[in-house]
Automatic annotation (TrEMBL):
This is Dihydrolipoyl dehydrogenase. Residues 353-462 form the Pyridine nucleotide-disulphide oxidoreductase dimerisation domain. NAD(+) binds at residues 188-195, 211, 278. SUPFAM superfamilies: FAD/NAD(P)-binding domain, FAD/NAD-linked reductases, dimerisation (C-terminal) domain. Keywords: Cytoplasm, Disulfide bond, FAD, Flavoprotein, NAD, Nucleotide-binding, Oxidoreductase, Redox-active center. It comes from Rhodanobacter glycinis.
């Protein structure tokens, strides 16, 4: 086999593996180099998302939700279960099995599409050559007309709360606790803090989340964040805002935290500490000094709107570049770049990338928040509709939250949709489609939505933009 490829992808996360498959589908001779080692010490394709991110966290969120429902939801339906217990080996084992199924699945997809996988650390050299260093230190060099950098991201470490993999952990550690921590501290009330904090809270941990910002979930629309904060407080998640961690010391009886909030210095002892204060683009050892590929001010690989680095034949996608650090954003960039390389019309619109937070209730949004539109001086109108008036949500005993739709005041074009409530991870897709087609709130208002479904909340929110919701006052 010749070591010259049309495309080499470095990184087999959702950005890289999707780019590799799409490039191969388009008839390009493609290789994909990845260094991720699974729990069994073997190569595990799929990157952060499949191994220690999206998939395992959703598996644990689902398992923990079943357990939570026994005590908090079943009684409403007249069902009682005495003394429910969680078997931790099965709880974690189920997650591991799902991870293995999906990481193994990527290997099969590579085989089916004739993508050549390489296991090792890839380094881009000048002239689109890639040096691969295996776990045993052995090196080999391959080359290609095009190289796609998809090296992803890693958790940000706090200098005064360094990860030790036991007491102070990152996302990977918090997905693998062997028992439920009695007291779990979380630094950062962001997406990971809320999702993994919820998992362990549902199993009985006392969860305290320390968040530096004064505002809760600043990236979301304020109305949605307010409802979510209220629900999380009801569930017993103790979220301390405007709180700055100063020290975390591991002692025999736990991790001793010192933080400052509006009332001054505070102390807290926890059994485990999850640090989830954001992620940084991972480019360590990725680029030889003379490649010409540049990093931006935040250490991300600098790219233009076509994900091109400015160096002939070198592209970059996913968490390693600007834009939201989301699996689906990286995957769509991967598809677009493969298509651009093949001379086709690739497309990605970063303005309509949906966000979903898989807490209970779920949170989802796409487009602009009301605050952003105010700052930009864009005239807008708002419609909203509560799940409390949706028959299906009430029947499910999950009638919490709302759908909020924001449309341009003059053109009625949908500018943003923000949701908190049951099943909103799925409901947001309809709104993204409407926004991609430059749809108006009236377009959604005139579309027939099945009854009784949760999607009626989207329909009614669209009607409410024009003050004509049927099942609430306007
Ligand atoms: P990654 O998935 O990080 O993959 C990069 C790969 O490249 C890795 O395998 C890495 O080992 C490899 N690599 C890096 N450098 C080299 C090199 N030099 N040589 C060889 N290989 C290299 N996003 C969502 O959209 N939905 C979710 O529900 C969601 N949940 C998440 C939950 C958690 C706990 C975490 C941590 C993240 C979650 N994310 C979620 C974010 C999502 O995981 C990332 O956005 C996504 O994985 C980024 O994809 P990527 O391919 O750019 O990078
Ligand atoms: P995040 O950016 O979502 O949240 C980090 C939080 O930590 C912020 O609220 C920030 O203000 C706070 N913070 C920062 N420094 C702090 C400090 N010193 N003390 C206290 N608080 C501090 O980051 P994350 O939760 O680590 O997740 C990383 C990224 O992974 C997310 O932004 C997202 O892109 C991705 N992710 C997505 C999903 C999903 O799509 N459902 C799930 C998990 C992760």
């Amino acid at each position: 086999m010749s070591d010259k490829f049309d495309v080499i992808v470095i990184g087999a996360g959702p950005a890289g593996y999707v780019a590799a498959i799409r490039a191969a589908q388009l008839g390009l001779k493609t290789a994909c180099v990845d260094a991720f080692t699974g729990k069994d010490g073997k190569q595990a394709l799929g990157g952060t998302c499949l191994n220690v991110g999206c998939i395992p966290s959703k598996a644990l969120l689902d398992s923990s939700r079943q357990f939570w429902n026994i005590a908090h939801n079943f009684p409403v339906h007249g069902i009682s279960v005495d003394n429910p217990k969680v078997d931790m080996a099965t709880f974690i084992g189920r997650k591991d099995k799902i991870v293995k199924q999906f990481t193994g699945g990527i290997g099969q997809l590579f085989k089916a599409n004739k993508v050549t996988p390489f296991f090792g650390k890839g380094k881009l050299l000048k002239g689109n050559q890639v040096e691969i260093t295996g776990n045993d230190g052995e090196k080999q060099t391959i080359s290609a007309t095009n190289v796609i950098l998809a090296s992803g991201s890693v958790p940000i470490e706090l200098p005064f709360a360094k990860f030790d993999g036991k007491a102070i952990v990152d996302n990977a550690g918090a997905l693998d606790f062997t028992e439920v921590p009695k007291r779990l501290g979380v630094i950062g009330a962001g997406v990971i803090g809320l999702e993994l904090g919820s998992v362990w809270k549902r199993l009985g941990a006392e969860v305290t989340i320390i968040e530096a910002l004064p505002e809760f979930l600043a990236a979301a629309d304020a109305d949605i964040a307010k409802v979510a904060a209220k629900e999380f407080a009801k569930q017993g998640l103790d979220i301390k805002l405007n709180a700055k961690l100063n020290k975390a010391e591991v002692k025999k009886d736990g991790v001793h935290l010192v933080y400052t909030d509006k009332d001054g210095e505070q102390k807290l002892v926890v059994d485990k500490l999850l640090v989830a204060v954001g992620r940084r683009a991972y480019t360590d050892g990725l680029l030889a000094d003379d490649t010409g590929v540049k990093l931006d001010e935040r250490g991300r690989i600098a790219v233009d709107e076509h994900n091109h680095t400015g160096v002939d034949g070198v592209w970059a996608i996913g968490d390693a570049v600007r834009g939201p650090m989301l699996a689906h954003k990286g995957s769509e960039e991967g598809v677009a770049v493969a298509e651009w390389i093949a001379g086709k019309a690739g497309h990605i619109n970063l303005d309509t990338v949906p966000w979903v937070i898989y807490t209970e209730p779920e949170i989802a949004w796409a487009g602009k928040t009301e605050k952003q539109l105010k700052e930009e001086g864009v005239p807008y109108k708002v419609g909203n509709f509560p799940f409390a008036a949706i028959g299906r949500a009430v029947a499910m005993n999950e009638a919490v939250g709302q759908v909020k739709m924001i449309a341009h005041a003059d053109t009625d074009r949908i500018l943003g949709v923000h949701m908190v409530g049951p099943g909103v991870s799925e409901l947001i897709a309809e709104c993204v489609v409407a926004m991609e087609f430059k749809g108006s709130s009236e377009d959604l208002a005139r579309i027939v939505h099945a009854h009784p479904t949760l999607s009626e909340a989207v329909h009614e929110a669209a009607l409410s933009v024009d003050k004509r919701a049927i099942h609430k006052g306007n």
